[in-house]
Amino acid sequence: MVWRNAFLDPAQAGGWAVLYSQQHFLADSNGVLFPRDWVKRQDLPIIGEQGIGHFGEDAVYLLQLKPSATLEGCTWQSLRQFMLQGEAETFRMLAYAAQIGTWYAEHRFCGSCGAPTRQLPGERAMRCDSCESQHYPRISPSMIVLVTRGDEILLARSPRFVTGVYSTLAGFVEPGESVEHCVAREVREEVGVEVKNLHYIGSQGWPFPHSLMLGFHAEYAGGDIVMQEDEIEDARWFRVDDLPPLPASRSIARHLIDLYVARRLGLPEPSLP
């Protein structure tokens, strides 16, 4: 089934519900969609509700819960788990739901004056009647880049990574900065080298609040590896036929690596999930 986001009126009955709190969703053996009217009859601490779109032909609503919420036979699963293990359209739905849920949780009170806000009818916006501010969902762009040098690729690992795994370089775009400038700056800061011939590859909604990850390929332009203290534990050049353990296969980081390796070795090119 295909996911299509839309603004739906929560006053309407029926449909399906996804149950969300802090980048996690309640799921049982049947998945993450629950009969909405049934959910509302359960004793759950619901903070708010948003109509978020259609999964196939069915209306879907987001029910925001307190973190302490439990439902028999269900467990909380992270958005990252669904990205790496779930069906692609389900992840698209949940990525959107997580963004909307985070926006709602962070704007129940006005960031300008502190007064309570209310949702505008028919619009994805929280309005403060006290100072007339309106707060809309926002996206924070970030970049991820594979740096290459012929048959070699530059990979690094953070102390936060799974032991032994190496990945591409990534970082958030700063205010007033283009994504292209962000790529050059982050590579320079993290490993001390310069890049050239930057090419956009693709994007992926990232399981981190507000994030959209923009993927690039760049060629090495000069410099020796100098690792950023406290951020990079190790960084090396690896040959495309002799790579270390890599990120999960459905991540954009892995796609950048697999795509370049396929092109260098004459293999079929993978598609980004």
UniProtKB/TrEMBL annotation:
Record-linked InterPro entries: NAD-cap_RNA_hydrolase_NudC, NADH_PPase-like_N, NudC-like_C, NUDIX_hydrolase-like_dom_sf, NUDIX_hydrolase_CS, NUDIX_hydrolase_dom, RNA_Hydrolase_NudC, Znr_NADH_PPase
Lineage top rank: taxon: Bacteria
CDD domains assigned to the protein according to its UniProt record, in alphabetical order: NUDIX_NADH_pyrophosphatase_Nudt13
Binding site for Zn(2+): 110, 113, 128, 131
UniProt keyword Manganese present: yes
UniProt domain Nudix hydrolase: residue ranges: 137-260
Catalytic activity: NAD(+) + H2O = beta-nicotinamide D-ribonucleotide + AMP + 2 H(+); NADH + H2O = reduced beta-nicotinamide D-ribonucleotide + AMP + 2 H(+); a 5'-end NAD(+)-phospho-ribonucleoside in mRNA + H2O = a 5'-end phospho-adenosine-phospho-ribonucleoside in mRNA + beta-nicotinamide D-ribonucleotide + 2 H(+)
Enzyme class per UniProt: hydrolase
Cofactor note: Binds 1 zinc ion per subunit.
Keywords: Hydrolase, Magnesium, Manganese, Metal-binding, NAD, Zinc
Cofactor: Zn(2+); Mg(2+); Mn(2+)
Pfam families from the UniProt entry: NUDIX (PF00293), NUDIX-like (PF09296), Zn_ribbon_NUD (PF09297)
Annotated GO MF terms: magnesium ion binding; manganese ion binding; NAD+ diphosphatase activity; NADH pyrophosphatase activity; RNA NAD-cap (NMN-forming) hydrolase activity; zinc ion binding
A Gene Ontology BP annotation from the UniProt entry: NAD+ catabolic process
Motif (Nudix box): 171-192
Residues binding a divalent metal cation 2, per UniProt: 186
Binding sites annotated in the UniProt record for substrate: 80, 123, 136, 204-211, 253
Gene Ontology CC, one term: cytosol
UniProt keyword Amino-acid biosynthesis, yes or no: no
Chain residues that bind a divalent metal cation 1: 170, 190, 231
Entry binding sites for a divalent metal cation 3: 186, 190, 231
Family: Belongs to the Nudix hydrolase family. NudC subfamily.
Task performed by this protein: mRNA decapping enzyme that specifically removes the nicotinamide adenine dinucleotide (NAD) cap from a subset of mRNAs by hydrolyzing the diphosphate linkage to produce nicotinamide mononucleotide (NMN) and 5' monophosphate mRNA. The NAD-cap is present at the 5'-end of some mRNAs and stabilizes RNA against 5'-processing. Has preference for mRNAs with a 5'-end purine. Catalyzes the hydrolysis of a broad range of dinucleotide pyrophosphates.
Subunit structure: Homodimer.
Protein name in UniProt: NAD-capped RNA hydrolase NudC
Lineage start: Bacteria, Pseudomonadati, Pseudomonadota, Gammaproteobacteria, Pseudomonadales
Gene giving rise to this polypeptide: nudC
